[in-house]
Structures are given as C-alpha cells and as structure tokens.
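pinned: reference chain
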Amino acid sequence: MSIWEEKLETIKDNISQKRTKKCVSQFDLAMLRMEEELLEVMQEMQNYFENELEEIEGRQKMSYDIHLKDPVTGDIAVVPGHLMTGGTYKAEYHPETDTFTPALNTEAELNITYNYSSYYYESCKECEKEGIRTIYGMTGQESISLLEKMISGILEKYKADGEWITTTREESMCINPETGKEIKDIVYAIRNKVPYETIKIKVKRREGPDTNYWKPTAGNALKPLYQLLALARMRPDCIWDGD
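pinned: its structure tokens
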C-alpha cells in the first residue's frame, strides 16, 4: 500500500469512528465534515493523477541513465572532465546566490529524458525496436556509426533547406468543460470543485532547440546524441549500458 493510500485509509477510519459515537459535539461534527471534504478531494486527486500516469511511458522512471562501463572492472568509465548536462547532472551549489552550476564530471554518463524517445525510435531502421537502447551492449567504437546515423536521420526529417520545420503534434490539455478555458492548476481546481476534463489538442511545434530542456523537439533530442558520440570517442574501448 502506498503512502497516499494509507492516508486515505486513515481518514476513512477516523470518519467511521466518529460516526459510531452516540454523542458528538458540534466541534466533532465540523471536523467530520472537513475530513469528509478532504477525503473527497484526495480521492479525486488520486484518480486524476493515476489517469495521467497511465499515459506516460515508463511509469516508475522518467529518463534514461546511460553510461559506458569499463570492460575490465565493470565500473563507469573515467573520461577527461566534462560539463555535459541532461535531465539530472552533477552540480555545484553557490549559497551566496542560491544557484547551481554544472560541476566537472569525470564519469562517462548521461541522463536523458524519455520525452525525446519518439525521435530516437524513428531516427533510423536499426532503432525502430529499441530506440536509444540499441547502443546498449555496443562498445563506444561500435556505437559511433549508429549515433551518427541517428543524428543524420533526425536532421533529414526535421530540417529543410537549413531551417527547422514546424510540425503538428497532439498534446493533452485540462479544461473547464463549462467555459472551455484551460485549467493550469489542477490541484486548485480539484480543491475548489471546479469541473474539469482532459482533452487532446493539436498544436504547432517548431522542431528546433528550445530553452525548455523537457520540451520534446528534434533539436532538443539531438543534443544528447552529440554528447553520447563525444563520450564514445573518448572511450571507444568501453561498453554502453543503462536504465
């Protein structure tokens, strides 16, 4: 049982116990009503987020953790210090400004969001079944030609005359069915009993690099491939592994 489910059960037990009391004060009645309302909100939130999670590939993990293994020790391979960043990366904290900056990393590893996965599956025929995982088990040297082919495939599909093309994509949006307006804060909507529903909409997307790392575009998907290519060239003797 998850922590979320345990909390729901605790609230249900509290409500049940109070209902069996012969004498209930006005205060207890007020608390009972609050607990019932809280239970309704929690159950509605649980239903909403469970439905959303079902649409996400890789329910428990949201990214690839890819690295090169030393063929002798099996440890993550050591490379010259680099500042490659992905969904997660080593960082240094600066208390004076309360900010983080990438830290020098000497391990041949890279985290990549699953948001780019569709681009990897369609990049070339060799990757149709496994996507980026196709390189797992290959040496750095063996993977170089495949990574170059993936890069070429994405560029050929999403660039025309040197310019990134615009595509039409389907995305989910939460709206108020009564007003047709988008709901950006679903938790607020649930707590305040605002009617909502999730719909699919068509959106135009420029496929070039975007400042939002998590946005799935061809340009964003290309950067990790170039990074993996650089690692492969640093340690051609090591073996790719991940997840």
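why pinned: The chain has a mean pLDDT of 85. The chain is about 40% helix and 25% strand.
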